[in-house]
Amino acid sequence: MGAKETIAEGKAVLGIEFGSTRIKAVLIDESHRPIAGGDYTWENRLENGIWTYHLEDVWKGLAACYASMKRDVFDRYGVKLSKLAALGVSGMMHGYLAFDRDKNLLVPFRTWRNTMTERASDRLTELFSYHIPQRWSVAHLYQAVLNGEEHVARIDFLTTLAGYVHWKLTGEKVLGIGDASGMFPIDEKTRNYRADHIASFQVDPVIAGLNLDLMKILPKPLSAGQRAGYLTEDGARCLDPEGDLIPGIPLCPPEGDAGTGMVATNSVAAGSGNVSAGTSIFAMIVMDHFFSHIHRELDLLTTADGKPVAMAHCNNGTSDLNAWVQLFADYNRLAGIEMDMDSLYGKLYEEALAGEADCGGLISYNYLSGEHVTGCSLGRPMQVRRPEDHFTLANFMRSNLYSSMATLKIGMDILLKEEGVPLERMYAHGGLFKTRGVGQRFMAAALNTPVSLLATASEGGSWGIAVLAAYMLTESMARPDLATYLKKEVFCRMETKTMTPDPEDVEGFERYMQDYREGLALERLAGERLQSRRQD
């Protein structure tokens, strides 16, 4: 069946992901191939010291993204989109979206990027003997209690961004198990929140005196393949204000960007891993079981079907690198040089390949916000070099690219070297890998592991959640497990390009990291001494 017929007969599947800088929609056919797409650019705000997005921006962006995709469908195929076989929503994990019983938002959305929950993270990690990162939803909730915030007593529902959008589209208070595992620890056997941790939370002296039942306010975890509700009339109008979209479309469980990234890179089987590099950067390895040691640099999450996952997550990825590229774009404008941003990125990234393996001694810190992995509570981007270091454009760009991966490497070294978790190959996706052969090569050096790119790498989580929605449509009695489905139905004919680590790059990255670790004291000091001038 051609794409036009697939769309006209309502057999196409739509995936929508709320990323940190872009809301993206991908429409796929029955062979999981993207046949149309749309997007909308948005940005987080720093208001009163809180990284946030306004909820009106969520709905404005969703409608604009859908309209962009709808226009793409009409321009390509001459068909007005009105029917879908299935739909899925993904979004940035963690954070804090708290609502009262009248569905009112109690406090502005606190995103994963906020690092003001250190006390809560420490106390909960000790209480559970299980690492609870600062960005997790339960850490934000516990910190609100520690702060004496009056809204806590009125919480009726607590969810993530994907869970919120799904709730408004369907009326269902549910969450994909992968996204739920970033709110509260998951039991790998029951595929629900860990009962022992729930009990410990409820009897904790800080919580015991409050009218706060955690199991009642958290969304219900669902695994891949389960149906998670249907698009309501109001939900259809949120997506398509023009009124063409017919309600009643089944939705898969809403998932986090980590879970959809694993799907998009065929990394849901034990021993597989993937790395996603964008505004934030994280890498995950699927395991046979959770390890017992507490490593504050690592998260324990799950795949979309509930398998244990170890994750190294860093708040700061490519944002500072992007700022430097924009600086060169400003120079081009001043000099009257016409060059689009994609070409500029490509030239600067390729120039980094000519740099020395250790960046000639140049060190970059890409911290726009705090970073828990290295104990930096505030972000202050820095460039550091000795007078005798080789300050060239190639070394400068290479240093900035290394910097986007450096904190991730610190976490992954614990996982690979200390815990000895087996890893044969990493699959990569995200904007950092768009220029072929650059980010991929440096990531292989950072992890000392082959790194593969799939043909769908640029589609990312929006394609991943569309695949999960398609998986839901398979007959439940004959449905294979998710790993088998991806291997045999989705990735069986997909192009893969792999780069193995270059020994000189590996050695150079290790030398870079020696200086990077030693200079972290400067980064922490900058955060302490250089206070923000912003008053909003």
UniProtKB/TrEMBL annotation:
Keyword set includes Kinase: yes
Pfam families for the chain: FGGY_C (PF02782), FGGY_N (PF00370)
The organism's place on the tree of life at top rank: Bacteria
Domain (Carbohydrate kinase FGGY C-terminal): residue spans on this chain: 274-472
Keywords, alphabetical: Kinase, Transferase
Membership in a protein family: Belongs to the FGGY kinase family.
Listed name of the protein: Carbohydrate kinase, FGGY family protein
Source species: Shuttleworthella satelles DSM 14600
Taxonomic placement: Bacteria, Bacillati, Bacillota, Clostridia, Lachnospirales
